[in-house]
Amino acid sequence: MLLRSLEYERPTSTQAAVEALRSSRRARALAGGQSLINVLKHRLAECDLLVDISRLEELRSIDVAVDGSVRIGAAVTYDELDNSASLRGAHPKLAEVAGGIADQQVRCRGTIGGNACYSDPASNFPPLLVALDAKMEILGADGLRSVSAEEFFHGPFDTAVRPGELLIAIHVPARGELGVGYSTVTVADADSWALARACAALKVNGTISGARVVVSALAGAPVRLPELEERLSGLEASPEAIREACANLGAGLAAVSDVHASAEYRREMAAVVVRRAIVEATER
After folding, report:
1. Residue 103 CA from chain centroid, whole number
2. What domains are defined for the chain?
3. Of the given ranges (70-74, 151-155, 179-183, 188-192), which has the lowest mean pLDDT?
């Protein structure tokens, strides 16, 4: 199916991009276009102006501060994340997740900002950004504002970015002593649709402390698991203790049924990926 007729604009600055986006409530930012173009072709969303931000150098940098915190421009591609030595030193899991997305062609076009703003329930980065307590930097007519990743993802294809605004960067706090684990169960193979994802970020010194555990791909937005985080606090960092803490976890999770899996199966798989992510985090 072909795109409907629309206008195309390639601004030369982020401020000009915001002004273009403000010119119409049906304007959309275009970075990699991996998902947006297909959505528009299938008439799942309406657009009368594409604002191409893919060449804005302001959105293309990965900056690692002295303290180990990272600022990632929204138009940084998965391939650039995967091949950034500084990012692998500061936050290796971000680079690893980027390097495992689909194939090389997709990784050369897809962007971390697009992945976040598309907010597909099965997207790769949302649960990781929530677990890492990332902050999303949004530019609008009134200037910059910062939104926590936990509050950024509202639901399927719905985020805190308002009409006329643009996500320009993602800030990730220094990893410090955090161990980070990430696990996914997919429909068929590594490149297929996720049935359940989980990410865990925690400190381990014999026992677990400061845990943030997030599950996604079940329904809507990524979900933190505060009750499980509380159970993990002070727990021995052993696979057996973690398995016990995660017992019956899936029963309390909201999930949807679709052509790929039933809600019941998704909940069972959520318990599996959560446990695996926690164990990996303790090992790292």
Report:
1. 18
2. 7-52 (3.30.43.10), 60-172 (3.30.465.10), 178-283 (3.30.390.50)
3. 188-192
